[in-house]
DNA sequence: TTCCTCAATCGAAGCGCTTCGACAAGCTTC
DNA sequence: GAAGCTTGTCGAAGCGCTTCGATTGAGGAA
């Protein structure tokens, strides 16, 4: 039952090293200078005893919990693998800063934010998948809890936001297709519902895609097989010269490929397709497609790093856009 | 900066309600009887002030953190969406018990377990994706930290384990195919590497599939398009009467369907396919396939519930197998 | 009435840590 | 060689909570 380190306190370490408890604390935190000999003795005692400071006691005394919260969206339509990559990326980065990560779900809403803020269980907060009109944003501002948002709400005044540069992603897709010699290109987007909900994201892709170069169409599309089939057919009918397609709708990718095959298009030869979405989606169709991925890990690392800086009282840019990367396969 | 509830302590609540701090504590915890009038006054004060107990102070005084840890595997080959469903299911269930969830990654290994145990940052632990020979298991046993494992290590003595009943899943697939009149059936499994690593899981499916009924083949298979294509071809060549296939290899499902189409098989008519894997995989091919899913949410809820019981000193079964559900589409 | 019981409440003692002020030595500096 | 700095260390206070007696007053038994 009582393993090593079980119930070991700073007093035990102090006794073993022959110093005062406060000295141990200073060795561990580095907040006052301690002679190398003493420090060594303390570190040795820490190692011998397998000592780890009691998190609650530390948080009570220092007013720093050493924990950040991450609030995940639970809503459908979020791509789960990306979320997971994000979460694990955030944990990994947080651990580098000696922080732990508390997982919350968006369905706790503003009340959840108030709870963690008041209970001081976390020092800061990362809010994922922020919508243009997000009810949590106002609460966040009121609480004054250090935070970083993934995504941009309508009013980002005074907030720290990080996101993929979706405009650049749209532009990259258009450029890729143009370079392949496609004269007429189209963007097959997500369902109308997505556009309606979070204009920020889908619209920025559209803007980037349309850009300033040549004829281009943008077509929202539901993700069920039948709708995709129909939408692609209509798109081809309406644009006879269409030779390039960007797909910003993960679940639809497979169906798009079928529809193109049915229409007699040879993808990779007389027709080009590029995906905005996670690698797996682009890899698991035949032929494999080039894609612009949502760099979940980078996004997570950036968010955590920014939050750490804020907690340390350093300043960070209000708005950070991560450059998209187009992978050719 | 200082919003409501910011810095509010139990003393503030006590003052407002005209009682002692200890009384507030007893009202909140229900550990001693308090007159209804007093309780009402206290609750009112709590509401007025937006009071939430300081988590660190509470954990220090009560030796209960109100947080459980969840250790996620980061290894490739784990299906990310399932992990995510699991994580969010666990958080949701934990919140029902007024607990928070700390996210850890498996790469912290045994040392991570020792850390969270010694720092008392969590009260208990859920370990996902436990392997047959898992180095964390021994540490866990030594630490005596209340825990629930997802999966079964070789030596589960004294541990609480929860998992999908994979044997039953294999059996269900075989039965489904038999019922469709398939005489000769096969199981297309994961790559050899998976079998090698975690015998428990893949082998149990195989056993269930082979069962006692009629001719059946089990064929491990890598998940790249080319290998899948070849494996399916060989399988068909070696078993000319094959009319039923179970696929226990998520990324391969799409390729399997192509290979069968190439071989002239009409899935759903003269040939039947069933998937062991998440819904999306089975839904996003044409035709949609029946599937046995890993019930991530149920698994997570069960794990959390078991852990809560252990924390309350109640006992729980050492081993819990969740019944698989075959969904027909 | 007196004594006892029991329910309701209070006060104080920690939980294990950080941090502040104090205090010895060992240095400079004039 | 006294006055002033540093440097390294200690002791004590206190963070906000829970919990363990102790205390009070009301009601019942004698």
Automatic annotation (TrEMBL), chains A, B:
Q: Pfam families annotated for this entry?
A: LacI, Peripla_BP_3
Q: What CDD domains does the record tag this protein with?
A: HTH_LacI, PBP1_LacI_sugar_binding-like
Residues covered by the HTH cro/C1-type domain: 9-45
Query: Which SMART domains does the UniProt record give?
Result: HTH_LACI (SM00354)
Q: Which UniProt keywords apply?
A: DNA-binding, Transcription, Transcription regulation
Q: Which GO terms describe its molecular function?
A: DNA binding
> Which organism is this protein's natural source?
Glycomyces endophyticus
The residues covered by the HTH lacI-type domain are 8-62
Q: Which InterPro entries match?
A: Cro/C1-type_HTH, HTH_LacI, LacI/GalR-like_sensor, Lambda_DNA-bd_dom_sf, Peripla_BP_I
| SUPFAM superfamilies found in the cross-reference section | lambda repressor-like DNA-binding domains, Periplasmic binding protein-like I
Q: What is this protein called?
A: LacI family DNA-binding transcriptional regulator
The top of its lineage is:
Bacteria, Bacillati, Actinomycetota, Actinomycetes, Glycomycetales
């Amino acid at each position: 039952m009582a393993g090593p380190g079980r119930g070991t306190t700073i007093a035990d370490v102090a006794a073993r090293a022959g110093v005062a408890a406060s000295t141990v604390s200073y060795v561990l935190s580095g907040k006052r200078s301690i002679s190398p000999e003493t420090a060594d003795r303390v570190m040795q005692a820490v190692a011998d005893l397998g000592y780890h400071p009691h998190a609650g006691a530390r948080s009570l005394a220092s007013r720093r919990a050493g924990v950040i919260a991450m609030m995940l969206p639970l809503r459908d339509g979020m791509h789960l693998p990306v979320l997971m990559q994000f979460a694990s990326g955030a944990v990994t980065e947080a651990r580098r800063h000696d922080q732990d990560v508390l997982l919350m779900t968006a369905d706790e809403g503003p009340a959840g934010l108030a709870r963690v803020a008041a209970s001081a269980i976390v020092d800061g907060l990362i809010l994922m998948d922020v919508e243009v009109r997000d009810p949590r944003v106002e609460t966040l501002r009121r609480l004054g809890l250090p935070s970083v948002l993934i995504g941009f709400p309508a009013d980002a005044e005074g907030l720290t936001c990080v996101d993929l540069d979706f405009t650049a992603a749209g532009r990259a897709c258009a450029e890729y297709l143009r370079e392949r010699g496609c004269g007429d290109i189209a963007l097959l987007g997500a369902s109308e519902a997505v556009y309606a909900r979070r204009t920020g994201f889908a619209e920025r892709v559209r803007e980037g895609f349309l850009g300033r170069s040549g004829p281009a169409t943008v077509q929202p599309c539901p993700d069920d097989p039948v709708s995709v089939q129909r939408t692609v057919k209509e798109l081809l009918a309406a644009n006879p010269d269409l030779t390039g397609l960007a797909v910003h709708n993960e679940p639809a990718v497979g169906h798009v490929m079928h529809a193109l095959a049915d229409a007699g298009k040879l993808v990779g030869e007389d027709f080009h397709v590029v995906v905005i979405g996670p690698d797996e989606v682009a890899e698991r169709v035949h032929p494999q497609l080039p894609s612009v991925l949502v760099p979940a890990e980078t996004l997570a690392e950036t968010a955590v790093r920014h939050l750490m800086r804020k907690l340390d009282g350093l300043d960070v840019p209000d708005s950070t856009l991560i450059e998209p990367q187009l992978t050719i396969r």
